[in-house]
Specification:
By secondary structure, this protein is mostly helical. The protein contains four helices and no strands.
Length: 107
């Protein structure tokens, strides 16, 4: 195989990037519609969409990093975005929870 055939394609990071962009737009619209009704509905909608948004953005970042750092290992290139996405979704939810529970009522 030539070096040109061994290079991984950019389809996987591109799919994660497009999914992150579109998922964020959809989730922002959901929160906007819920928040236009009431503040508490906006907070609940934000709680609901933080896991998917965190998953998508952390997975997208991991996909880009794994694409360049792990060129030979397909398992890591395809699996790392899912693992990092789960961790990223959890941490984003934790940050939003910490913001809305003690800080937001004091504002």
């Amino acid at each position: 195989m030539s070096d040109e055939q061994k290079k991984p394609g950019c389809v996987w990071p591109a799919l994660w990037g497009v999914g992150s962009f579109l998922g964020t737009i959809v989730c922002a619209v959901i929160v906007g519609i819920a928040a236009s009704d009431s503040e508490s509905a906006g907070v609940m909608a934000t709680y609901a969409v933080t896991l998917p948004v965190g998953f998508l953005w952390a997975g997208s970042l991991a996909s880009i990093i794994a694409h360049f750092a792990m060129r030979e290992n397909k398992g890591v290139r395809y699996g790392a975005p899912f693992g990092c996405g789960c961790v990223g979704g959890f941490f984003l939810f934790l940050m939003i929870f910490v913001f809305f529970t003690p800080i937001f009522p004091a504002l």
